[in-house]
Amino acid sequence: MVGEEGAFVLGWDEVLTEEELSMTLKVLCMSEEEFKEYKEQDGWEDDSEEEENSTLSNEALSRLKTPCKKLLYDSVLLTLESYGADLKAEQDLLNNKEAYEKLSRREQQALHVRYGQKRILHQLLELVR
């Protein structure tokens, strides 16, 4: 369903891999009975048009059912733990001109990418809290 990396792509306004995330949340939040039925039917063949046309915007993420929100919240926390430094440490480094200029160009770019990723993850935490 998700691929080898098991990663989803999040943007500032919506989930960019919404189909994968939506399906994964559905399956992971199923009861054992629901999952057995799902397997027997080889998935959902007759999804409603509403589900097919819905996007996982930030607003939609905040309206997810509690088990799905908890799963996302815990997943985001695990992802944030995998980073070496927290958001504040990255922000402090970005704001410290002297320390920032000591970084190589590649390190500066990596810092900007990590900081942006962490900001998106923190935004997601707020949406599913």
UniProtKB/TrEMBL annotation:
Alphabetical UniProt keywords: Methyltransferase, Nucleus, S-adenosyl-L-methionine, Transferase
Ranges annotated as spanning the membrane: none
Q: Look up keyword Methyltransferase and say if it applies.
A: yes
Ranges where the record places region Disordered = 39-58
**Where is the Rubisco LSMT substrate-binding domain positioned along the sequence?**
4-121
GO BP annotation list: methylation
- Acidic residues: compositionally biased ranges: 43-53
Q: Where is this gene product found?
A: Nucleus
SUPFAM superfamilies recorded: RuBisCo LSMT C-terminal, substrate-binding domain (SSF81822)
One GO MF term on file is:
methyltransferase activity
Q: Which InterPro entries match?
A: Rubisco_LSMT_subst-bd, Rubisco_LSMT_subst-bd_sf
Q: Name one GO cellular component term.
A: nucleus
Question: Could you identify this protein by its name?
Answer: N-lysine methyltransferase SETD6
